[in-house]
Specification:
Oligomer: heterodimer
Number of strands of chain A: 5
Distance between the termini of chain B: 30 Å
Largest sheet of chain A: 5 strands, antiparallel
Order of helices and strands of chain A: EHHEEHEE
Number of helices of chain B: 4
Helix content of chain A: 25-40%
Number of strands of chain B: 7
Helix content of chain B: 25-40%
Largest interface: A-B, 33 and 27 residues
Strand order of the largest sheet of chain B: 1-2-4-6-7
Structural class of chain B: alpha/beta
Strand content of chain A: 25-35%
Number of helices of chain A: 3
Structural class of chain A: alpha+beta
Distance between the termini of chain A: 20 Å
Amino acid sequence: MESLSKQDVSISIRVDSRLDQVHMVGYAVHGICSQLGLGDIVVYQIELAVVEAVNNAIKHAYGSVAGHPVEVVISANEKRLQFEICDEGETLHFLQKKTDLDFDPQNKTNLPEGGMGLHIIAQVMDDVNYFVRDGRNCLVLCKHLSK
Amino acid sequence: MRIDEVKIGAVLVVKPMDKRIDASSATTFKSKMADWIQGGERRIVLNLAEVDFIDSTGLGAIVSSLKGMGGEGDLVICNPRETVMSLFRLTRMNRVFQILPSEEEAVASLSKT
């Protein structure tokens, strides 16, 4: 079987703004990344970052209201992987800010239960950009593939 | 979400049987854990052997369970896959939870306290 890394690939997935559909995006990302020969942990972390981005679109851009589109365009070539997550909901300006996950592991009463998604995305991806295009909010995540 | 449970001495071992603890299942997971904690369980082992994927919402539910214990007892995690373990490292939650490679070690750890 020919490796995906030898050719450009672009796949578009459209799901409804329901959290119970996000795993389908995750499985698609996982499958493509696995074909690129990336290690299990890298594949997991990339799937995780994209899932976090889609969760954000559903929870925050659409306020967890079903019936709205979330489109994920996955592009891959031998140099990089790109994930474009687009929605038509509220623009999330906080996505343009740097996020730190700062807490004291010994202080169990103040541990964060949320707000970890953006930190994960920033840790896993090499480039993260958020912008509005044609009335749609787009979060673009890039991962450079070293040879 | 199906979660198997077994009591070993004073320790409750809970084992999620679904492959994913994510934003769609985290509420159910959190609610079941809260039921056990409100029922008085203070020594809990969370066996992640069957779990392939946890996202930040799922992780938040695990953190919430620990906080729900109010500083009494402990919630010890065992059997995480290396992939899932990487989530704990990314978020530094590996410094919050005691994470052990086997259920036996986790139960023994909580039985000592």
